[in-house]
Structure formats: C-alpha cells, structure tokens
Design brief:
Belongs to the membrane-bound acyltransferase family. Sterol o-acyltransferase subfamily. Keywords: Acyltransferase, Disulfide bond, Endoplasmic reticulum, Membrane, Phosphoprotein, Transferase, Transmembrane, Transmembrane helix. It is found in: Endoplasmic reticulum membrane. It comes from Microcaecilia unicolor. A two-stranded antiparallel sheet has the order 1-2. It is globular and about 100 Å long. The longest helix is centred in the first third of the chain and has 48 residues, at about 45-95. A hairpin with a 2-residue loop joins strand 1 and strand 2 (about 45). Helix 12 packs across helix 19 (about 500-530), helix 14 (about 370-395) crosses helix 19 (about 500-530) and helix 19 (about 500-530) packs across helix 21 (about 545-550). The chain starts with a helix and ends with a helix. The chain has helices spanning about 1-15, 20-40, 45-95, 105-110, 130-135, 135-165, 175-180, 180-210, 215-245, 250-285, 295-305, 320-355, 360-370, 370-395, 415-420, 425-440, 445-470, 475-490, 500-530, 535-540, 545-550, and strands at about 40, 45. Helices cover about 75% and strands about 0% of the residues.
Length: about 550
Amino acid sequence: MAGEGTSLKSRRLNSRTPATAEEDGAMRKAEGDQSFGAVSNGWVNVEHVISRKKQLKKKAEQLKLHLMKEVDGHFSDFVENLIEESTLLESASSIPTFPAACTEKDGRKGRGVKSSSEHGKIFISRRSLLDELFEVNHIRTIYHMFIALLILFIFSTLLVDFIDEGRLVLEFDLLVYAFGKFPIVIASWLCMFLSTLMIPYSLFHLWASGYQASSHKTLRSLFFGTLFLLFQIVGLGFGPTYIVVKHSLPPASRCVVIFEQVRLFMKVHSFIRENVPRVIESAKEKSTFVPMPKVTNYLYFLFVPTLIYRDSYPRNPSIRWSYVLTKFAQVLGCLFYVYYVLVRLCIPLFHNISQEPFNLRVLVLCIFNSILPGVLVLLLFFFAFLHCWLNAFAEMLRFADRMFYKDWWNSTSFANYYRTWNVVVHDWLYYYTYKDFISIFGKRFKAAGMVYVFMVSAVVHEYALAICFGFFYPVMFILFMGFGMLFNFILHDRRKGPIWNVIMWTSLFLGQGVIFCLYSQEWYARQYCPLHNPTFMDYLKPRSWTCYLQL
C-alpha cells in the first residue's frame, strides 16, 4: 500500500503539463509585480490586499474541489477493485460440503459438477444502506422528522376524538377490523409452510436418488415434474386463495396469506431450479455422488430473507438481539403510522367523495389529494418491510448479505428504479424469468424478455391486490404494463442528471395518487352501493362507475 501511495503521488506530480508550469511561472511573476506595486512610499494599498486575499481564497477552493474529485475517483476505483477481488476469492474458495459417507473419489467428481448457482448471484457480507446512512446525523434528522410527523398525527387524532366524543378514543377499530380472523391466518400459514417443507423436498429427493440409474430419465422427470406443478398450482395456488375467499378474511389478513403464498411459491421454484441442473450434470459425468442438499439447508432457506437458493450463505458470528427488537418496534411503529395516515388523510376524503356526483373535477382533486397519503404509505412500506422486517429476520438467522435494496431514491431512470427498489424480488425475476427466457429464445429477444418480466410482475401484483381487496380492478396491471413498461424504455439508464431524478419522483408521486384514489373509490363504492343478485360479470365491472352514475 505504501508503494501504491508513492506511485500515485508521483503520477499526480508528473501529470502537470509544461503549459501548466509556464502558466504558474507567469502567474508568480505577475504576483511579484503586483506585490511590488502594492507598497509604494511606505503606504500599503488596502484594496489590493483585500483583492489579493479573495483571489487566493478562490484559487484554494478550486484546488480543493479538484483534489476532492481526484481522491474520490481513485478511492471509488480502489473500492470497486477490492470488492471484485474479494468476490472472486470467496467464490473460488467456497467448496460444497459432502455427506460423510461419500468417498474421496466421489468427492472429487462432485467438485467438478457445475450448477446454475456458479453463474448467478454471489452473496457477500454487507450492511443495509439505511443502517450506514443513519450513522450520518444529517440523514438521521430525516428519520426524526418522520417521527415528529407521527406524533402530530397522534395528537391530531386524539384532539379530534376528544372534541367529537368528549373522551379519548383509543380503540384502533380500523386495525382490529383489518387484522380480523387472525387464527385462520395462522392456521393457513402453518398448512402452507409444512406442505412447502415436506412435499417439494420429498419429490426432489425421490427424483434425484433414482435419476442416474433410471433407463427412462425423460419419463421420470415428466412424472415428478407434473407432481411438482400440481403442488404449485393446487397446493400453493388454489388452496390459500380458496381459504381467503371462503372465510371472507379482512384486507390485512388477506395480505398476510397472499404474500406468504407468493413468497413460498418463489422460494420453491428457486430450490428446484438451482438443484435440478446439478443432478443432471452429475448424471452426465457418470458420478456416483448425487448432489443432494440437506433438509436443514432447505429449511434455513425457507426463512432466510432471499429468494435465491444456495447451500450456504455468508453468516455473522453472533445475533444482536437489541437490533432485532429495535427493528420489530419500528415495524410496529410504521403499522400505527399507516393507521393514522388512513384515519386522518384518507377516510374523511373518500367518505365525502363517495356521496358526491362524479365528474372530472372530483376525479382530478381526488388524485392530487391522494398523492400525500399514497407516498407516505409507499415510504412506510419500504422502511417497514424492505428494511426493518427483512433485517430483523436476517439478524436472527445471522444472514450477512443485507442488500435488500439499493439507493433507488437517487434513480434518474425507471429502469434503475425497478432494479434497486426491491433487490430481493428483482434478483428472482432476473435470474429465473429474464435469463431463462433469454437462454431459451436467444439474446436477440432481450426486449421481449423485458416485456415478459413486466407481464409476470404485473399479473402477480394485480392478483395480490384483487384477492386482498376482494374485487378485480386492473389499475395496477395497466400502470405496470402500460406506463411502467413505457417509462422503462423511455427513461432508460442513459438518462443522467438531476432533472431526470425530478421526473422520476414526479411520475412516482402521480402514480401513487392514481392508485390510491381509484382503489379507494372502488372500495367505498362497493361498501355503499351493494348489488342485489350480482352476476359474475358484475364482479369484474368497476362498481365506482355504476355507483356514481346512480348519484
């Protein structure tokens, strides 16, 4: 390092061109002439001294700026090279563990087996970005501002309730309703988790153990693959959805079941997708070793906050229980924050709108009045789930790779925003949707692969909202497949500069206002304008249009 520092200094000194040296000499000569003229007959020209100080100060600021740019550039290059070298060393030094019954010869053959994980995501030990930023006082002040706003929401609600009711109302009836019938949620989750733990692993174990000795490998794979797809469609697909609809669960309880359904579905797909190629490659090499993951590895993967399966992950040496309690407390605080945002900003607005005749002015005012609560809920969801919830589970499981998101707020393009907003889901979509699409159809169809990814994401988002709210209103699907995909191609990575970040935030604010306004209007329309003997098509039609036409 000392040698590198010396060579770096010498390069900087040698980088000064002859023209620059001549300019410095001329400047020194001019400065000498000026200083000689500044003192005449024993009198000092005060104006000249002040002017000279200003010039020196300006020159020092320019040199400081130039020096900071040089240091920042060299430091960034050094850090990037260091990360690349450490990643290569970690991937080269990671050796898969084999069962004790495996012989040394089988072990050497097993080491030659290649899987898709060698060309996929590499996990390294790193902290979440907000944990690092909150160590800076300027950034932590923003966090304090959100806490102050929550305190004001609480005081406002308590004062209004005291004025209206003559007493303090601390019933939280909205939260009680939203998370109602929670025992059914717990029972549903246990059924989903136990079936996900036993059935896919058992099917994979039976398939892999007899694959190499089988004389009908294709038929064997089709049989077990069909059983696996039946479990995905019926067990994880139809089953939880039927329970949610059959028992008429409230919105928040529905969200818990549906989100867990989607999460387990993606995890099971990753487990099969990562391990099947290893077994096939092992059979091609005539190896007696079958790369069978342990059930403990699979169990750990079902809880760890990532959707990409690996036999092992970087682990921290200990658990900081105070950190875990802090993150769960922040999740609880965000939950109450959303409650007060809905009570103070949303319910009064949409309760009044639902009783007014519908026109263009009402719609425009509704959208712009919904921007503030929509953005607050978006930021609270990001902080509560992507930062606090995932970090809490990562800490309890000693999972060391905490890059669940990146600096999406600095994005100057929607393409970068989609990559950095939710890294956990993006990694799954990239490796198992986009890359698999490209490997099947070729690199000429990259644009079609991006459209396919947007379609999958839009369908899943719309499915989750339709089940959670209890009605089909494809606003999210249209925004994803329409404006989202359009912005992805128009506001691409070549867009740089602050103005594009402003455009990204403006579009994001407006989109949240549209989503919040239209879904809330539809919700209130279905509460105040129920249909008698509705048909199947009535469930698909937007109720808000019919309700407002009646008004």
